[in-house]
Design brief:
The protein contains 18 helices and no strands. The chain is mostly helical and 405 residues long. The protein has one domain: Up-down Bundle (Growth Hormone, Chain: A). α2 packs across α5, α2 runs antiparallel to α15 and α10 packs across α14.
């Protein structure tokens, strides 16, 4: 790869770092807002869902425009809007206002993130597409780790509001730099992708729900949805749940950050397996290890060291799933359908992810023990293992279409 492509990929990864920090910010802030604003944690279930709804709306309605008009406009505009809405979040004083700002932030992220995934695939060598996409999206666990590790210092310096000022400012800086660095053309038609089959039609989103793409899209979106449920359930409520097991708020934030950072290594390793080994078994191994880690937590008494190690496998695995699955899309769909597939996948996945924060809020309100709360996360992980059994059949669809072209 050229130095220009490496720089572009590095900056795209920074957008995911910003997203990871932004995702963690609300969850870390929630247990502190009861004292600051008098709002109990259980009231934030729908607030934590707001960004997911926005991600789905933005992913389905705005992200596919990148397949027609180029990626840069969607990516830069999404970063700019994300920065402005994130900076506005600390002005909220009620759950309704928090919900509004998080919803708008989600729309902005939903517009740009699928285009970042698609562009990273197009910039990568063909044999390393899943690995490069995973490395770029590895910014999410890096951002989650950074939020968990720096939250105590940020809160001490600027209060809970600083948790939103940091990613908001970073997003605005990225918008300016990416406008200067990225090519303004339509990368869906770069020369090294021109030979790949591209579906016809003015609305490529609809192609995903018809033959032959409906089956691979169903497999892809189902795993995204189940994994997203776990990702947002855990990252929204882990800083609140762990203190119920005897840990301090600061320790809970740090453990959450460390567990998410583990997703970086797990995701890179799993993506290498997807690129170079059998894709279905690689995903079964990833999600199976997640499920076993949460089952072990469910069956053991709280212990900070043991739980930290198990959460590195479980929470790290959820983050790794978010890295690996967009890379799988590069093997399932042609280049001209990739932004639409990832964008619509984001929308369909949110149907599962929407359940995460409210489910957590219901368990918090019911005073469910921490072991049981975390053990529930084993269910979506093990369901992903079953869906991964269908990956091999889903992969044959693209091969048949390209052979017939």
């Amino acid at each position: 790869m050229t130095s220009g492509r490496i720089l572009a990929l590095s900056l795209l990864a920074c957008v995911f770092i910003m997203e990871g920090f932004d995702i963690a910010a609300m969850g870390i802030a929630v247990p502190r807002l009861e004292d600051a604003l008098g709002i109990p944690p259980a009231s934030f279930g729908w607030v934590l869902t707001g960004i997911l709804v926005g991600l789905g709306v933005g992913g389905a309605t705005l992200a596919p425009l990148g397949d027609r008009f180029g990626r840069r406009t969607l990516i830069v505009a999404g970063c700019l809007a994300t920065g402005l809405f994130t900076l506005a979040t600390p002005t909220a004083e009620t759950t309704t206002m928090f919900l509004l700002w998080r919803f708008l932030t989600g729309i902005a992220l939903g517009a740009c993130l699928p285009n970042i995934s698609a562009l990273s695939s197009e910039l990568a060598p063909h044999r390393l597409r899943a690995t490069i996409m995973a490395l770029v999206s590895a910014g999410i666990p890096v951002g989650l780790f950074a939020a968990g590790r720096t939250a105590p210092a940020i809160i001490e310096a600027w209060g809970w509001q600083g948790l939103f000022w940091v990613p908001g400012g970073f997003a605005l800086l990225l918008a300016a730099i990416l406008w200067l660095i990225l090519d303004g053309g339509s990368p869906a038609h770069t020369p090294d992708r021109a030979a790949e089959a591209e579906p016809a039609g003015r609305l490529p989103q609809l192609v995903l729900f018809a033959r032959p793409w409906a089956f691979p899209f169903a497999v892809f979106a189902t795993m995204l949805g189940l994994n997203a449920l776990n990702l947002y359930l855990l990252n929204s409520w882990l800083p609140t749940v762990l203190p119920q097991a005897g840990m301090t708020l600061d320790d809970a934030a740090r453990i959450t950050g460390d567990a998410n950072l583990a997703g970086l290594a797990i995701g890179i390793a799993a993506s290498a397996l997807v690129d170079n080994w059998r894709k279905g078994p690689a995903l079964m191994l990833l999600f199976g290890a997640m499920g076993l880690s949460f089952l072990t937590i469910w069956l053991t008494a709280p212990d900070q060291t043991r739980w930290t190690l198990l959460l590195m496998v479980g929470v790290g695995g959820a983050n790794a799933g978010g890295m690996v699955l967009p890379g799988l899309a590069a093997h399932l769909f042609p280049a001209g359908l990739l932004s639409s597939a990832v964008g619509m996948g984001v929308l369909v996945a949110r149907l599962g992810a929407f359940a995460g924060p409210p489910l957590g809020a219901a368990m918090i309100a019911a005073e469910v023990p921490a072991q049981t709360f975390l053990g529930v996360a084993a269910i979506p992980a093990l369901a992903c293992v079953l869906v991964a059994l269908l990956v091999a059949s889903a992969l044959t669809v693209k091969a048949r279409v390209e052979a017939a072209a």
